[in-house]
Structures are given as C-alpha cells and as structure tokens.
From TrEMBL:
It comes from Bradyrhizobium erythrophlei. GO terms for biological process: malate metabolic process. Residues 1-11 have a biased composition (Polar residues). Belongs to the malic enzymes family. One of its GO terms (molecular function) is NAD binding. Keywords: Metal-binding, NAD, Oxidoreductase. Its cofactor is Mn(2+); Mg(2+). (S)-malate binds at residues 154, 406, 450. This is Malate dehydrogenase (Oxaloacetate-decarboxylating)(NADP+). SMART domains: malic (SM01274), Malic_M (SM00919). NCBIfam families: PRK13529.1. The active site is at 101 (proton donor), 172 (proton acceptor). A divalent metal cation binds at residues 243-244, 267. The keyword Metal-binding applies.
Amino acid sequence: MLNTLPESSGHPNGYELLHNPHLNKGTSFTEAERRAAHLEGLLPPAVMTIDVQVARRHAEIANLHDDLLKYLVLSDLQSRNETLYYAVLMSDPATYMPIVYTPTVGEACQKFGHIFRQPRGIYLPITARGRLQELLSNWPERDIRFIVVTDGERILGLGDLGAGGMGIPIGKLALYTACAGVPPQHCLPIVLDVGTNNQVLLDDPLYLGLRQNRVRGDEYTAFVDEFVEAVQQLYPKCCIQWEDFANFHAVPILARYREEICTFNDDIQGTAGIALAGIFAALRLTGKKLAEQRFLFLGAGSAATGIAELISLAMAREGVDLAAARSSNSLFDINGLVVSSRADLADFQKPFAKDMPPVSTFVEAIRVLRPTGIIGVSTVPKLFTRDVIRTMAEINERPIIFPYSNPTSRSECTAEEAYSWSDGRAVFASGSPFPPVEIAGRRFVPGQGNNVYIFPAMGMAVFATEATRVTEEMFIVAAEAVAEEVTEENLAVGLIYPPQSRILDVSLHVAERVATFIFDQGLARVERPEDIGGLIRSRVYRPVYAEAAE
C-alpha cells in the first residue's frame, strides 16, 4: 500500500507542508514540487533520494553511544517525517527494534516526563469520565483499526509508571507498521490515566499525568467500559490491544470483552504465542513431542497462566485431555509452588494448582516435578541460578531454558549463564536480546522470544480480513507459523526464532496463516479471496514518498 497525497484542494503548502509528518519529504521534494508547493527557499537546494536520507540517519544514529539518545532521535524523526521514519526502521529492523521498543523503551517510559518533546496519541484521564467519546473525537483520523492501550500500572518489569506508560503503545504500534506493514494512519496509541501509586512520580514536578493515587473498583470498571463503548461508536472496525495492565485488571478485562469485541491482551496472549512458537522450534532440537513436555514457570501472573493455558490448548489439539495438559504446567511464585492448599490463589491460577504438599524453593520444585523446560516471567533478575540450570541439565539431555522477563536488567539469567552452566546443552531463548556466546569452541546465537513475531502479524491478519474477533486458536496458528520460519541453519546455532532481519517476511507468512484461519472460522468481514497471501501483500504499507497531486 503506497502513500498517496490528498487531492490538491485543501492540500497544505509551504511551511505548513514541511511540518506535516504524514506528507513531509524534507530534501526529497523535487524541484517541480518545491515550485508548486511554495517550498523554494524553505529547503536547501539539493534534492536527495529517500535512500540517501536513510543513509544520513543511519550515520547519525551510529555515531551516538547512548540508546536513549538514539530513541529520541528516532522519535523526533517520526514527528517530522513519518515515511522516512519507517524507511529507516524497515531498512534494518534488527538494529532498530531494540531502540524503538524493548529494552530501550523501558528507560524512555521511566524518564517520560523528562524527555517529553511532542504529544503523540490520546490521553484519557479518569477526570474526563462521561466525555471520553468527545476526547477521542479530537483525533484527526476517522478510520482507526488498531488501538494499543495501557493504564501504565505494570510497564514491562518496571512497575507503575503512570502516564509515562504511553511509550509502550507508541512503540508497539510502530512495530505494527515496521514489522508487518500495517498502515500507520490506522493506528492510535492511548493511555487510560487513572492516577499512579508511584510516589516518586507524584513528587516529580515534570510528571505529566494525573497527580492522584490510582482509582480502583467500580469506578475503574465503569471508566474502561465507557472507553470501550466510545471506541465501538467511533471506530467500529477497531481491534483493541490491552498492554501492561496489572494482573488483577488484565485478566478480567480480557474475559469481559473477548467474546464481545475484536480484542486481545498481548501480555497474556501474545507472550503465550511467542513462547509456544519457541517450544515448537525447540522440539525440533530435542526430538520430543509436545505431549511429552512438562513446564515449570517462575512467576504465576497473567503472563505465566496465559502461556500455560495456550500450551495446554495446543496439547489438547494434539489429542491430550485438557485437564491432563494443564497438569503438565506448574507455577512457582514468591510464596512457593502454586498448590491447591494455598489460600492466596487467584481464580486464573487455580487450573494449574498442584494437588501436592507445598514446595518452598525453585530448585526443589525442579527436582520434584522434573520439568523438561523452565520459563521465567517473574520480572526478578538472576533467579535462574547456577544451581537451577545445573539441576535442569541433570534431568534433561536438552533442557529448555526460557528467561522471558524484560527489559534485560530483569532477565532471570543471561544467555552465557544458561549455556555455560548447562555445558552448552540448553535450548535457550530470552525476552531481551543477548549477544552470541562461545562455549568450548562452539558458537551459540540466542533467540529473543519477542512478541514482535506475533502481535504485528496478528494485526495485519485482522486488518486485511476485518476480523470480528481474536481467538486463542489464532495464537496457536501464529505460533506454528513462526516456528515454520526457523531454518535448519538457525537451529544449528541454537537459534529457535527467525532472525529479526527477516521480520517483515516472517510476519507476512504468519499473517497469511492466521488470515486463512479467520476465513475458515467465518470471522472475516470481507469476502474470501482466491489468493489470501495476495490479499495480505496488497494491504502492506511501504515507506515510499507520495507523488504530487496533478
């Protein structure tokens, strides 16, 4: 899908055109365009191609030695010239994804009020209850297909960052476009500002959100209900992606709306999808079947239970009884193994509670349960200790070690630790990026179990088909499709996810598979084409400058 300038009537000219990020080409305006749009004298005389502009940005960013500065340079570019911004990102996604999203976005959110330059997206404060549709109507685009929304309470592994959480929806939606070609004009980042319980932020004179403690209970629920209703009224084809809500809100919000509107929670379902994709690929290395696996989770929140449930559903698709499949997944949190006798369990944890005596240490839980894989979603660093990894390696020829917490500072272990403590036998993937590791003369390339392989592709499938719902099965299909893109060459160096340099091709493959499932299930609002892959490709945004209107 190429950019197109609007008809000449009402088209901005001159200085206004240079400050419209959707239409600005900067030095790529031709001499004829400069004359016609009254740009002469407002630009240096040289005319540059977009490739030269991209090269200039590459050089500028490469000379910076601080990732947050790189993030800010890219954010400023997005505010000035959206086409060039996406051309830069899509020219080298493996380099730029860690800058525009994890891990750098975590620091950006922590310092949001101190680095704020220009607003992007919509801020809906709870003080505007009763007027949310009015506030949403201030957004200039009318055909919004994707909203990524957060209330800022559980940003990555960093906790309550209040309105500073806006960096997450902005970053996620940038990846919708850069990684799967979803046109950016259809995307809207939103923060639901219900206050913050972070006293450091409340005391910070530069904090940009409401200066009050968080609203809870019925008032919070009514606020979210009003938001969803406003979205449905204004954007009836929109899919809402919930992002970085606390567990006690994330789970009930998803349960409340998943059968009513097109929606999903990336922390629960996207994380589950990418974990399952890693498991599918890992089984090609271990030579085992999914039904033979047992997983122990470090962390028992919505991410852990979401992964455990999707694994269980995938096992059930292969003929395992669902209850038996759930019993293959165990949870461990700050209070020990999740067992049925505990009085502190939430409803979403109970399907995975073990009917056995309590176990107080993670290593002991490994010895008792003998898992084939451990998955870290605790957001607490260094909990996969030498003892943990060595115990896993004692009971498994190829132990599956997935420290998925991010950013990097929160990872349960590093790639080097997992490989060295297992004598190079671990099948490893992490939530944050780690460099290649050499163990006894063998080179390992750690895979990053990043949701970026799932949610942008899911978005493109929903966009192309105008799907009415997002179902659990769609995430299993997406996981299978991601694993299909892992080559034997990747596996030979321990890489169980496709290289991020191939993210667009991988995403379009995943989107085609998911779109096919959407059509098969009767969930599409458009007619099924003969060539579903062709439909997907026809909707892809390309960062190419629009031609001037005749």
